[in-house]
Design a protein that fits this description.
This is XRE family transcriptional regulator. Keywords: DNA-binding. GO terms for molecular function: DNA binding; DNA-binding transcription factor activity. It comes from Aureimonas ureilytica. It is a single chain. The chain is an alpha+beta fold. The chain has six helices and nine strands. A six-stranded antiparallel beta sheet has the order 1-2-3-9-4-7. Helix 2 packs across helix 4. The chain is globular.
Amino acid sequence: MADKEFDVGGRLRTLRAQAGLSQRGLAERAGVPHAQISVVEQNKSSPSVSTLRKILGGLGVSMSDFFNDSRSAEQAGPFFAANGLIDLTSRIRSPGYLSLRQVGDAKEHNLQILHEVYGPGADTGEILLQHASSEGGIVVEGEIEVTVGTLVRILRVGESYLFDSRIPHRFRNVSSTTAVVISACSPPYL
């Protein structure tokens, strides 16, 4: 299926129905407004990464499982082609171009390694990310604004971060050039 054909709303509706939840029930579990579930399921609004992650958390589904409902032998590794990474985000619209691609099966290895590309204006969302993990990364191209709790810093090539992901956090490209980050998170959260 081509990326543009992926039906985010339809997939969410199917998973919600399989879980035996109403829209209101999922909204309560996820901690989002009821109307947000409705507009996403109708494809009237494309959620940010943080919002989709929050909604999927209410279902106990990772973004990796949401977008890749089947696993291939290539995902087992131990080696992966450049085009063999698991696409977690290009099927959702967000402000600016945002791509998060995962190396292999993160659940199996209890480690999520991501190749992250943030176009100018890209943002993980106004709702800060928060999950029970530790994560770190290094900027390999451009610069990225990282918010961790009340701390905000613009990191440039060669600079890095490492923090307890239970602290609310956000990633934004506030520059006019593309930023690339290689990151790791354990246990996996997307």
